[in-house]
Amino acid sequence: MFLSWKGDHSPRHVHVYRDGVLIVKWDLENGLPMKGSASARLRSLIRSLDEEGLL
After folding, report:
1. Could you report the per-residue pLDDT of 4-47, keeping only the tens digit for each?
2. Structural domains counted in the chain
3. Strands of 32-36's sheet, edge to edge?
């Protein structure tokens, strides 16, 4: 599950959960994890969703 909120605090970021557990909190502005870690596949998904304007 990918969660982001408009108007949330900076930097612009997304929370990624699997089975209710936070996997990574990803900084979309700098392309870096804020908490946790992301596999190459997950980074690719985040990048694609962001480019499509879905995050």
Report:
1. 888 888 899 999 999 999 999 999 999 999 999 999 999 999 99
2. 1
3. 2-3, 13-18, 21-27, 32-36
